[in-house]
């Protein structure tokens, strides 16, 4: 079987694509990975080169959620159709909604990693303004034209149906991470956060705000500037200092680490005793999975999607409640028994979410698509 796997190069979707491509290749699937939205970072590029037989196509087109993207979205569609004509995959696996309506020869699976409408509802408490109507239409048309739809959580699947239906219930395939990439280490009194600092949904600003109230230092990894995101992501973060590697840090203002290569992030998480993710919106939460694999005790926003995966494995705080976040972190900093119990439970749960089960679930979806199309790989 050959699969054309499409992903953007911004944030966790690229990580997801790397894990899936490697796991599919290990199962004998030929993978053509098409990435757009910007250059693939060098660390990710090294991982791609290690995947047997993988073909990587790359372009810098603006993504459908970016500012004035539609000319680029059209050009990206022609680019993807050209790749399909040349590579002739059995299945096209798309990570962008608008591309679902393209006239591919092969059956199309569209995977919803997030959407602006559900983001806006969760973060701004209202529907997006009329300036997003074209985005809404593109999402609705792409989902309606797809041969199958999937999401990484049942919560995200329900959001797609609620905002962009009528739509058959999407398949739910949780994301997976290779546990060998995030081994636990000797823990230190350190609270970690990770996520795009420019995205109000991720809660980095809340963690930065409460950092001066905590007895332990706080370090936050993540990009600080948005890649042309249509004016959505403008949350301020507290001032901090960049720090390139784990070491002793003083309590006080959050230490902003910037974007880290995966190995550097893994080193920080291996050392951190606590990981906090006070998100307002989270379709799945790859950073939480990575922290759990690294043996961190989790403090999470009480969101439907996070409860779905981590119920019984975390301390829960209401979204947008800085006082509750600070109190939960202070309690956990002072309770080593509770930290250890939560870390053990979270890691056990995380070990079920590997790239192997994720790839097997997608292979089942691919086979179903081919059977319905009357084709054989």
Automatic annotation (TrEMBL):
Residues spanning the membrane: none
Domain Glycosyltransferase subfamily 4-like N-terminal residue range list: 10-181
Alphabetical keyword list: Transferase
Molecular function terms, GO-annotated: glycosyltransferase activity
Keyword Cytoplasm set for record: no
Stored Pfam families: Glyco_trans_1_4 (PF13692), Glyco_transf_4 (PF13439)
InterPro entries named in the record: Glyco_trans_4-like_N
PANTHER family: BLL3361 PROTEIN (PTHR12526:SF634), GLYCOSYLTRANSFERASE (PTHR12526)
Name listed for the protein in its UniProt record: Glycosyl transferase, group 1
Phylogenetic classification of the source organism: Bacteria, Pseudomonadati, Myxococcota, Myxococcia, Myxococcales
């Amino acid at each position: 079987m050959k699969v054309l796997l499409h992903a953007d190069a911004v944030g966790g979707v690229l990580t997801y694509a790397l894990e899936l491509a490697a796991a599919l290749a290990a199962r004998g699937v030929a993978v053509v990975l098409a990435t757009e939205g910007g250059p693939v970072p060098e660390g990710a590029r090294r991982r791609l080169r290690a995947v047997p037989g993988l073909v990587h196509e790359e372009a810098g087109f603006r993504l459908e959620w970016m500012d004035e993207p539609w000319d680029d979205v059209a050009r990206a569609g022609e680019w993807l159709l050209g790749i399909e004509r040349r590579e002739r995959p059995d299945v096209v696996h798309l990570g962008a909604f608008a591309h679902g309506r393209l006239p591919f020869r092969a059956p199309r699976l569209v995977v919803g990693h997030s959407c602006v409408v559900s983001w806006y509802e969760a973060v701004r408490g209202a529907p997006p303004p009329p300036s997003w109507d074209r985005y809404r239409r593109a999402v609705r048309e792409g989902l309606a034209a797809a041969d199958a739809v999937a999401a990484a959580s049942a919560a995200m699947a329900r959001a797609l149906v609620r905002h962009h239906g009528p739509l058959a219930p999407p398949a739910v395939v949780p994301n997976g991470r290779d546990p060998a990439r995030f081994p636990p280490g000797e823990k230190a009194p350190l609270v970690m956060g990770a996520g795009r600092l420019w995205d109000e949904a991720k809660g980095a600003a809340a963690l930065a705000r409460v950092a001066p109230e905590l007895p332990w230092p706080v370090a936050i990894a993540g990009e600080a500037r948005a890649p042309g995101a249509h004016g959505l992501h403008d949350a301020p973060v507290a001032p901090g200092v960049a720090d390139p590697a784990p070491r002793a840090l003083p309590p006080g203002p959050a230490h902003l680490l910037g974007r880290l290569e995966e190995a550097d992030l893994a080193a920080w998480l291996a050392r951190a005793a606590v990981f906090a993710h006070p998100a307002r919106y989270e379709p799945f939460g790859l950073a939480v999975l990575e922290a759990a694999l690294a043996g961190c005790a989790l403090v999470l926003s009480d969101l439907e999607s996070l409860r779905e995966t981590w119920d019984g494995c975390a301390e829960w705080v209401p979204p947008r409640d800085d006082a509750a976040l600070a109190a939960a972190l202070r309690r956990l900093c002072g309770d080593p028994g509770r930290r250890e119990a939560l870390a053990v439970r979270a890691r056990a749960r995380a070990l079920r979410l590997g790239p192997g089960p994720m790839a097997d679930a997608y292979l089942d979806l691919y086979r179903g698509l081919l059977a319905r199309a009357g084709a054989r790989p």
